[in-house]
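Recap slide: VOC domain-containing protein, sequence and predicted structure.
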Amino acid sequence: MTDDTTRPVRQLRLVVEAEDWEEAVRFYRDVLGMAEQESYSGDGGAEVIILDAGRATLELSNPAQVRMIDGVEAEGKRSDRLRVALEVDDSAGTTRRLVEAGAELIAEARETPWRSLNSRLRGPANLQLTLFQELDQVEE
């Protein structure tokens, strides 16, 4: 493990074009609760907001792994090529809250073989989301 001063990559930032920008901000910042880090306005109505999503990782899976995850999480419904997985404290409760706020439910929260409680949704900006709650706490 390298310390923060020797890491060649400092941050993972997922940049998403949101056709309905106000709805996406309301959903991800106000409903889901991602804190606003910074925001900017530019010429021609340009708007951007950077939301804190906690620690970022990049998960690379081969097609067989994706099929296995789709079978476990979503009754085999095919996931998008890019899917945003968000760790939350209460995946079932957060799933209900996000559906009430307009997300499309793809699959209810269910326990996985790797001891997490996962659900799948489609949120604003056409993002496919997996909400996961770790059932066994991993030491930081």
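The mean pLDDT is 93.
The first strand starts at residue 36 and ends at 41.
(End of recap.)
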